[in-house]
Amino acid sequence: MTRINPINSILIVTDNVTRRKIYQLFFGARGVYVELVGDGAEAINKFESGAFDLILNDLQSQDCHGNRIAEHIHDSGTVTPMITMTSAKDFTHPHHATVLQKPFSMETLVSKIQTVAAA
User: Fold this and answer.
1) I want to staple 40 with a disulfide (CB 3.0 to 4.6 A). Which of 64, 71, 79, 84 is the partner?
2) What's the CATH number where 55 sits?
3) Does 4 reside within a domain?
4) What's the whole-model pTM score?
């Protein structure tokens, strides 16, 4: 499998168990360390306790909206890039610079990751 350079670690926030399994297999096969969390509170805790090259944030989470996660990351002063995944049409928010419209292919996700990583 082709590596996704320069990404070595990703924090993925989604409450969808099937998507978590797919992401784990997909990114793991490409040599990327994946930390999977199912809710916003857990995402904030993992973010605080680790260093990640990228965050994939599902806008709709069980216990908190993705905006809360984005605002926490923004307020921390980190430069960790984040891609927000959403099915909302024309979504904009000042702390969500990169939005990926659902549904999307894994090829589209990788392309978006490479664009964000190159910025």
Assistant:
1) 64
2) 3.40.50.2300
3) no
4) 0.84
Pairing of strands 9-13, 54-58: parallel
Structural domain including 13 reads: 9-118
The count of domains in the chain is 1
**Alpha-helical regions (H) of 16-65:** 17-28, 40-49
User: Which residues share a beta bridge with 99?
Assistant: 84
CA neighbor of 12 nearest in space, from 43, 36, 46, 47: 36
- The 10s digit of each residue's pLDDT in 3-41 is 677 899 999 999 889 999 999 999 999 999 999 998 878
For residue 8, give the amino acid letter.
N
Bridge partner residues of 55 (DSSP): 11, 82
Q: Is the residue at 105 inside a domain?
A: yes
> Residue 26: phi, psi to the nearest 5?
-65, -55
Higher-confidence residue of 84 and 66: namely 84
Q: Are 88 and 66 in contact (CB under 8 A)?
A: no
